[in-house]
Amino acid sequence: MLNISKEDFLANKYRCYGEQNPDIMNSPFWNYMVKSRVSVWEACQQFAMDGERFNDAIWCFDRFGSSETTLADGRKILIGGEHEDFYDDDFCIYNDVTVFDGDNNFTIYGYPKHVFPPTDFHTATLVDNTIYIIGDLSYRSERSFTETPLYALDTLSFKIKGIKTQGDKPGWIHNHEAIYLEKENLIYLSGCLISYQRDDKEILAANTGDYYLDLSLMKWSRVKVNHHM
């Protein structure tokens, strides 16, 4: 059985955004979902509510498309991700950050949507005390095809800020890989999927060109182009 009451479940069952940057989200139901990693169906079944219809997706930590970054002190940082596919009632993309301290303790940080939107299938690259969050699949209505999402998470304060960039941007990328080249102070991206628009239709394609982001200038450059849109 869940180690929470049905009242806790009903009071905290939905995703909500933080009001501060960051905002500690201390909900008994959310905390249980992090500890147990059960699906929404399993959680609802515990209260014989698996056949109920809800107004929104139930909050869940059983996700894919999230990132996990290990800090030098052993803490693990999990960012965003989604639960279920877009056609499911419990489909939800998250914008929270969960910090595990290595002793079975954790903190969930929430953020206002305008500060850090729901993010999935991104990369998280640690550089000193900053995690650079690059790319996003996101909800279809939230995609801006000419932009490349970039956010910086401060691992000391856990504040997040959006970063404006210049140069030859990769576009609306996701499902890519990123590595930090310390000597050059660059983040190198490869293996991207890119969403773009053609004739008012959204196209998803493999972007075989590699890119790098110069962190000194916050400027994108394209390395090679093998894909013709």
From TrEMBL:
<dbReference type="InterPro" id="IPR011043">
    <property type="entry name" value="Gal_Oxase/kelch_b-propeller"/>
</dbReference>
<dbReference type="InterPro" id="IPR015915">
    <property type="entry name" value="Kelch-typ_b-propeller"/>
</dbReference>
<protein>
    <submittedName>
        <fullName>Uncharacterized protein</fullName>
    </submittedName>
</protein>
